[in-house]
């Protein structure tokens, strides 16, 4: 098979005409042709409490083509100039104008909380302050005005020293991993191995007047030099801030059959001075309660130290002179130097303390959910510390050691050493499925696509967010609660749905909620769907270090549980675009709880459900009892399409890394043949080393999203050219998208033009982001042939057998997911200005084929003793159906609102 001369010339012409589609990065900055006057972009906090205890925030904004160019970026100013602002490009339109910009907001110098709303517009910005980082060959030094930080480029420490207000300090922060080696048998001993961080690279990733981001990369090193568990850690410093935000990510690369992580954490030192009865420990509960003690407590003694002393100690203040009857016997009052808060279950934590390592632990307190925030310090200063999503990502732990000495240590355990080891072994022995025929039989009964060696967790990743704040004194309870709320729900600036739409954010298959009488019932049902899943997460306890952020796939009405233990029916892994549905519903509704759930799902899917190292990287894993367990390793799960939402709305650097990781993901399809069990073969011929079989649906939808994102972010024309070539050669196929797939030349992105007129169509092709990315491509890139090919697919997939026969020579036969595919008709009806198609779209949507009918949105209560705990269920609801229903509803309200019955 070869590319025909006509197609080759067409590709060449398209590439030549697109030479100016995206200017090279060095010419973009010089491109300053006139743009329309910029209107103010109104900004507001995602949550109402975000302004309290504010220590900095970053966010993204979209811009319509031609409305903002790079030279104008420096002119953007906030409505309140007290708050340092920093702006930089995130993505470009093909004409070189800015598509997405990122912005960082730092606290005011006087510490005043930012207002509830701000605006960003062209204006008179104050003379920009210089960055507050200085570099040498060996060290970095940062001065925020509230913190002075020293970091070494090599060694084990993420930072050497942070000096804060008063006498507060944090020293020698490093990572710790405990690994148990050995078997499960009672008589088989285990060996505990200790690893500490070894930094291979530490650099300034982003620096400006408002913030500095330091990126550290390395591995955990054992004493004998073995390195495992590669990590990336970012430290965020904002001007005028006394806090540092830390984003930690690691990749699992152990032998799960013989090794298990028993502890994984961040440890740093806190120097302490003064008497033990003026050293204070705090822990915060998720209910707003605060555990508050002194290392050496003076209350409850046989001899009363006096009201002034006890009051001061309870407040964490310096004590007045003690009564002689107490002061002469202080050495007989135990000083409890070690504290441990352990959250080993989402509904239970305990606090214990002891005097020293040689002594036993005393139970101090218990509770349901800890907020993951603590404090250690003296009246002259200390450190508040916290781990985000603490109980949601159990087992987690906070340890304070040596608080009775001059040098205490604090460890924020991402995986608690008090919990059992991290057991990531596959959950069954293969059940005799040693060939493809048996594996297909297994798939038929449990929906699990099993294959030996494919269910390993090797290469999966997990991120955590931590924060340290240095204080001049012991924070009062309300102040510590405000710090804890900030850590758990970081302040996030956003803009209105209308402004996002005006800036052409993402695809064209969404619009802000209109709140009309005709749309009210659909809006109610959309809210019902989200609320149901939000509540199911809470009721079913879908939490845990490796699970938080995901939801289940299908329900078991007999047991009244989701099918957590049945093959491919368990964890959803974003099957049929659950993640896209959540982000579209956020764009539609603007609800903060939707944003936070979508954020958690993006973190989970892009990290846990994707292999980042090893033979399957960087592909994702299909839905399964274990997130990595299925042998179907697919681009449709790792697709950049979903991560783009979170990245562009927040400017999150880790998400940016994961997007870049997908840029060449299509190359892995050379080794992982998706249809290998049903006869699909690898390409053959002289160019086989540069070819892969790529479907035009789930595969190319992910490939095009990755290439488009890499192009618009970096200006790399290699990805532009591949994208354009792939679009041109899909359109040039005899049946366009209905050809189903083809052989791609991985060097150019072009598909071979088949001479076969056969048709291949799958109901899944448009269920994993293909409609969304096609709408973006059609808007951004002028290619009439590709637009026609896609609109033909949108119309004919949903057409009658007679219409399909006239256009394609034969009917497509019975097809699935009719309700979800109604959005294709709505989009085509708008693009082709055909109201009849839009009317047909609504009829097809409300028919509900392979979807959900309105009467299904009903919960029923299942009470004990039928179940262990009372729960709500909706028997007609599945995650696949809800995701496709929600996407179709939001899309049709955007593209065919005038044709909605009752409008």
TrEMBL record:
Residues 41-109 form the PcRGLX/YetA-like N-terminal RIFT barrel domain. Residues 133-483 form the PcRGLX/YetA-like central beta-sandwich domain. Pfam families: PcRGLX_1st, PcRGLX_2nd, PcRGLX_3rd. Residues 490-899 form the PcRGLX/YetA-like C-terminal alpha/alpha toroid domain. InterPro entries: PcRGLX/YetA-like, PcRGLX/YetA_2nd, PcRGLX/YetA_3rd, PcRGLX_1st, TAT_signal. This is Tat pathway signal sequence domain protein. It comes from Uliginosibacterium sediminicola. The lineage of its organism: Bacteria, Pseudomonadati, Pseudomonadota, Betaproteobacteria, Rhodocyclales.
């Amino acid at each position: 098979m070869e590319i025909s001369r006509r197609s080759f010339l067409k590709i060449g012409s398209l590439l030549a005409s697109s030479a100016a589609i995206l200017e090279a990065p060095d010419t973009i900055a010089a491109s300053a042709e006139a743009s329309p006057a910029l209107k103010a972009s109104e900004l507001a906090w995602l949550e109402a409490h975000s302004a309290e205890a504010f220590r900095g925030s970053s966010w993204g904004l979209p811009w319509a083509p031609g409305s903002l160019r790079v030279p104008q970026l420096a002119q953007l100013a906030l409505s309140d100039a007290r708050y340092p602002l920093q702006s930089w490009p995130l993505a470009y339109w093909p004409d070189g104008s800015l598509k997405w910009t990122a912005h960082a907001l730092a606290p005011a110098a006087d510490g005043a909380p930012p207002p509830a709303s701000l605006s960003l517009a062209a204006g008179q910005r104050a003379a920009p302050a210089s960055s507050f980082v200085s570099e040498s060959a060996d060290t970095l030094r940062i001065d925020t005005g509230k913190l002075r930080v020293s970091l070494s480029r090599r060694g084990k420490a993420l930072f050497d020293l942070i000096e804060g207000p008063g006498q507060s300090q944090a020293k020698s922060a490093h990572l710790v991993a405990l690994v148990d080696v050995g078997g499960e048998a009672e008589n088989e001993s285990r060996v505990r191995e200790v690893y500490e961080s070894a930094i291979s690279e530490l650099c300034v990733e982003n620096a400006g007047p408002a913030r500095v981001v330091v990126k550290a990369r390395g591995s955990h090193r054992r004493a004998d030099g073995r390195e495992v568990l590669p990590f990336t850690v970012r430290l965020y410093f904002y001007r005028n801030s006394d806090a540092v935000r830390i984003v930690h990510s690691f990749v699992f690369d152990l032998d799960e059959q013989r090794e298990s992580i028993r502890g994984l954490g961040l440890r740093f030192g806190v120097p302490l001075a003064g008497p033990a009865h003026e050293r204070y420990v705090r822990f915060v509960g998720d209910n707003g309660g605060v555990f508050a003690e002194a290392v050496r407590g003076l209350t409850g003694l046989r001899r009363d130290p006096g009201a002034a002393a006890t009051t001061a100690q309870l407040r964490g203040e310096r004590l007045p002179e003690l009564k002689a009857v107490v002061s002469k016997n202080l050495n007989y009052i135990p000083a409890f130097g070690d504290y441990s808060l352990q959250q080993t279950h989402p509904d239970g934590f305990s606090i214990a303390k002891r005097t020293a390592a040689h002594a036993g632990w005393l139970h101090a307190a218990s509770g349901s959910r800890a907020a993951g925030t603590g404090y250690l310090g003296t009246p002259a200063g200390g450190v508040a510390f916290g781990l985000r999503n603490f109980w949601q990502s159990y087992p987690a732990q906070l340890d304070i050691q040596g608080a009775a000495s001059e040098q205490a240590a604090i460890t924020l355990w991402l995986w608690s050493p008090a919990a059992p080891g991290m057991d990531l072994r596959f959950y069954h022995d293969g059940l005799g499925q040693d060939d493809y025929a048996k594996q297909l039989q297994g798939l038929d009964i449990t929906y699990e696509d099993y294959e030996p060696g494919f269910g390993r967790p090797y290469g999966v990743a997990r991120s955590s967010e931590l924060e340290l704040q240095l204080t001049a004194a012991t924070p009062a309870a309300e102040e510590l609660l405000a710090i804890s709320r900030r850590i758990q729900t970081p302040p996030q600036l956003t803009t209105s749905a209308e402004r996002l739409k005006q800036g052409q954010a993402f695809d064209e298959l969404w619009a802000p909620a209109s709140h009309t009488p005709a749309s009210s019932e659909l809006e109610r049902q959309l809210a019902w769907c989200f609320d149901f899943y939000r509540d199911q997460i809470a009721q079913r306890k879908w939490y845990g270090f490796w699970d938080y952020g995901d939801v289940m796939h299908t329900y078991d009405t007999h047991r009244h549980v989701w099918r957590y233990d049945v093959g491919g029916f368990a964890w959803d892994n974003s099957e049929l675009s659950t993640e896209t549905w959540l982000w579209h519903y956020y764009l539609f509704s603007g609800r903060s709880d939707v944003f936070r759930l979508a954020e958690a799902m993006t973190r989970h899917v892009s990290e846990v459900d994707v292999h980042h190292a090893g033979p399957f990287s960087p592909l994702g894993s299909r839905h399964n009892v274990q997130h990595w367990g299925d042998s179907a390793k697919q681009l449709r799960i790792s697709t950049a399409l979903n991560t783009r939402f979170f990245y562009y709305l927040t400017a999150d650097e880790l998400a940016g890394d994961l997007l870049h990781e997908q840029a060449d993901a299509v190359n892995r399809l050379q080794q992982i043949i998706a249809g290998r069990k049903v006869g699909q073969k690898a390409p053959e011929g002289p160019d086989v080393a540069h070819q892969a079989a790529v479907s035009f649906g789930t595969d190319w939808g992910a490939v095009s999203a990755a290439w488009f994102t890499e192009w618009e972010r970096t200006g790399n024309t290699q990805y532009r050219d591949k994208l354009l070539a792939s679009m041109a050669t899909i359109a040039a196929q005899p049946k366009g998208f209905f050809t189903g797939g083809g052989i791609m030349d991985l060097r150019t992105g072009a598909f071979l033009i088949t001479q076969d007129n056969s048709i291949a169509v799958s109901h899944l092709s448009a269920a994993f982001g293909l409609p969304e990315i096609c709408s973006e491509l059609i808007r951004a890139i002028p290619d009439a042939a590709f637009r026609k090919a896609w609109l033909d697919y949108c119309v004919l997939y949903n057409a009658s057998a007679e219409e399909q026969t006239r256009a394609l020579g034969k009917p497509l036969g019975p097809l699935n997911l009719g309700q979800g595919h109604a959005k294709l008709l709505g989009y085509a009806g708008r693009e082709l200005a055909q109201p009849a198609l839009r009317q047909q779209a609504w009829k097809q949507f409300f028919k509900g084929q392979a979807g959900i009918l309105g009467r299904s949105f009903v919960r029923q209560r299942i009470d004990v003793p039928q179940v262990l705990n009372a729960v709500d269920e909706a028997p007609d609801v599945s995650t696949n159906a809800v995701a496709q229903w929600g996407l179709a509803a939001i899309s049709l309200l955007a593209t065919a609102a005038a044709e909605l019955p009752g409008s």
